Amino acid sequence: MERSKNDLVRLVFSWSLQDILNDELLIDKVRQIPTTFSSGSHYLDSFIFPLIEETRTELCSSIKMVSKAPTWEITDIELSNDYEPPLNLLYRIEIRTVADSDENGSIFEPETGQLIALTDRRPTCLDDLSKPGSPYNIASIKRVRKKNDTEDVYEAKILTSKPIELEQHWQKDDTYIYGFGVYLCNMTTFIRIWNALNSDPDGPSIHIIKQLFQPNSGVGENCAQCFSSEKYSFDTSKLGAVIRSFDLNDAQEEGVLSCIAARECFHKNTVKLIWGPPGTGKTKTASSLLFSLLKRRCRTLTCAPTNVAVLELTSRFLRLVTKSLDHLTYGLGDIVLFGNRKRMRIDNLDDLLDIFLDYRVSILSKCFAPLSGWKHHLELMIWLLENPEKQYLEYLNSEVKRDYEIDDDCLKEEKEVLAILNQQTNQEKKNICYQDPNISKQNEWKRIVNKTLRENRLFFKEGNRCKYVKQEKMDCIFHEKGIKRLTFHEFVKKELNSIRMQMRTFAVQMCTHLPTSFVSLRVVKSLFECLDWLEVLATILSNNSVTDKGFKLALATFFTDECKLSSTTWQYKLDMTRKECLKRLKSLRDLLILPDFFDENSIKSFCFKTSRMIFCTASSSSRLHAEGFGRLEMLVIDEAAQLKECESNIPLQLPGLRHVVLIGDEKQLPALVKNF
Fold first, then answer.
1. Does 60 share its domain with 3?
2. Which of 56, 83, 165, 660 shows the greatest Cβ crowding within 10 Å of its Cβ?
3. Which residues of 454-492 are buried (b: 16+ CB within 10 A; e: fewer)?
4. What are phi and psi of 319, to 5 degrees?
5. Contact, 638 vs 283, CB < 8 A?
6. Does 676 fall in a domain?
7. What own/partner pairs with CB < 8 Å and gap ≥ 24 does 31-35 have?
């Protein structure tokens, strides 16, 4: 069979409505998948026509139920800039969702990869798609984004099977629309499988697949050259205590150790099978294996057929990881979970949200931002400690120019905010030791980290609906509504606390989301030690005995050898603590150098390339081909018996793959295949 040159969407476009409804359209081309194969091309081609028939069956089923399908109003249509007939019939359309677009009355959102029918009226039956004057026309959504946060209106780029002939017409609610987009099915998984099946059958990407269907390939056997019994015992002894702590039985422990041993071999590729009926601890074994691979710094992709299976295994694995982290949340940045946020219902899973890719990108984009991120606040703090007088002068000059207008409600709200901050400062005072700021604060930092992570999750879930008090609004309380202008001491104290709190948030975020290959544990500890010193400095400035005159005098003696103050005075503590803070801040400036990009795509690529453990569905792993994921050592597929064999080609073709572990039970229900 000749390799296909057309993509699957254009093949679907070539079908008429009658073709889609014809169950015998491909009856002479679909053949049973053989059990042996003569070549890589023979293997891949065996799935082509079954996949085409599966696609047709899915589309046929959707079209027969078109009267109940989600429907959107098309409010605007224009040619795309890359519109090139007769093939590239690309349009830009505006879609408005309606509340009754599904049986539950909820909103059904358009997504990339969806196939839609374009009609001039809401279809009430199948015949409405083929009426005279309403020719059957379908489109594939190539790109889509929400137009704004207040309306359910989307802008989409679509590829159509025929030129659009819809005309604008008036509706009863005094709105004008061009027609309707009727959801048919989502082609994303079909397209991903199609692309995998149409890869180069002689290329390096399918080398491990070829090994699977070669007779007497020795699949599952460890390399005799690398693993004598003595070497096997030596290589696994370091992890032995950890693995035994998982309370595995002998068979489970042997499975984990065998897979770890296989990973160390560079002479041959291996495919391991972990088999067991329901209830025999396959998920427990899999999570223990993944934890061991993480400790061995093995770059691993873990897949499963469904989101539910992926989330279950990821959750079990993450529980093991969080118990063993060396410092706070440091190490979570090595783990990435990605997929469709809505279908995964990730917002309901706080334990997994910290490793979810979209959430991580939103956090790191704030940390990397040049004018508002970590580097900016680090420089602000250094500038404040080195030049507080200049900072205060700028503040006074700005006060002259500003005209504040605040109402009583604003004033009341900001007083409440300050009261909370003061309460936090008082709590911090209780945990400070002036003489030794390096004293263990692990429990206190755990509280701070947990609080920061909760706030970050809330902001991600709520988006723009989440209300946060801005620093600019907090300044209001010090002005014309009866509140005095800040003194020099008050200004420095306020600025120090404001910058310090933001730096603390960034520190928690970077500790949680930066990979260990990018930032070392030594740097992370230095970061938190620096924040501890800044906290000591803030506590000293909050001392009731500090006067504005004395504060200026203490600053005047800074960096001179003339200071003869007693080591028991607050001036001496201020001087010494300030010097120590500056030294540590400048050290961090050299030690912690963040990437110079902060756009979403660059950060996603950064997360993929630097992570060690990645979790997703088998279908979603196609994204790693395009992201430049780099070389992969190990692939683990959970519930492998429930995954379509043709779909498993997607992760199996990732570059650099050397070892595969398949976990499952062939006696469980297989993957659902329609009309196969």
1. yes
2. 660
3. eebbebbeeeeeeeeeeeeebbbbbbeeeeeebebbbbb
4. -65, -35
5. yes
6. no
7. 33/645
Q: How confident is the model at residue 541 (pLDDT cuts 50, 70, 90)?
A: confident
Same domain, 131 and 178: yes
Angle at Cα 78 formed by Cα 72 and Cα 83, nearest 5°?
115
The Cβ-side half-sphere exposure at 116, using a 13 Å CA radius, reads: 31
User: What is the amino acid identity at position 196?
Assistant: A
Q: Is 421 within 8 Å of 497 (Cβ atoms)?
A: yes
pLDDT tens string 256-282 = 988 988 888 777 788 899 998 888 899
Q: Could you give the CA distance from residue 634 to residue 291 in angstroms, rounded to a whole number? A: 13
CA 362, CA 366: separation in Å to the nearest integer?
7
Are 473 and 414 spatial neighbours (Cβ–Cβ below 8 Å)? yes
Co-location of 447 and 469 in the same domain: yes
Give the helix/strand (H/E) hosting 426: helix 408-430
Instruction: Tell me how far apart the alpha carbons of residues 131 and 129 are, in angstroms, rounded to a whole number.
Output: 6
Count of domains for the chain: 3
Q: Is residue 627 part of a domain?
A: yes
Q: What distance, in Å, lies between the first and last C-alpha atoms of the chain? A: 20
Average pLDDT over residues 417-438: 48
Give the range of the structural domain holding residue 410, as residue numbers without chain letter: 371-591
Q: How confident is the model at residue 629 (pLDDT cuts 50, 70, 90)?
A: low
pLDDT tens digits, 147-167: 877 678 999 999 999 999 888
Q: Report the distance separating Cα 539 and Cα 526, nearest Å.
A: 20
| C-alpha pair distances (Å), 336 with each of 190, 513, 616, 618, 637 | 24, 9, 9, 15, 16
Alpha carbon distance 139, 117 (integer Å): 6
Task: Tell me the mean pLDDT in the region 556-576.
Answer: 63
* Amino acid present at 621: S
Q: What is d(CA 275, CA 611) in angstroms, rounded to the nearest whole number?
A: 28
Share of the chain above pLDDT 70, in %: 79
170 and 89 in a single domain? The answer is yes
For residue 669, being part of any structural domain is answered with no
Is the same domain home to 557 and 615?
Answer: no
Q: Are residue 425 and residue 329 in the same domain, yes or no?
A: no
Q: Which of 201, 234, 256 is the last residue of a domain?
A: 201
Average pLDDT over all residues of the chain: 83
Backbone angles phi and psi of 470, in degrees to 5: -85, 150
167 Cβ contact partners less than 8 Å away, ≥ 6 residues apart:
120, 178
Q: Which of 163, 183, 201 is the last residue of a domain?
A: 201
Cα 235-237-240 angle, rounded to 5 deg: 130
- CA distance linking residue 302 with residue 637, whole number of Å: 6
d(CA 467, CA 485): 27
Same-domain pairing of 417 and 311 = no
Q: What residues are paired with 54 via a beta bridge?
A: none
- Of 490, 525, 519, 533, residue with least CA distance to 399: 490
Residues 6+ apart with CB under 8 A from 500: 381, 531, 534, 535, 538
Give yes or no for a contact between 76 and 178, defined as CB atoms under 8 angstroms apart: yes
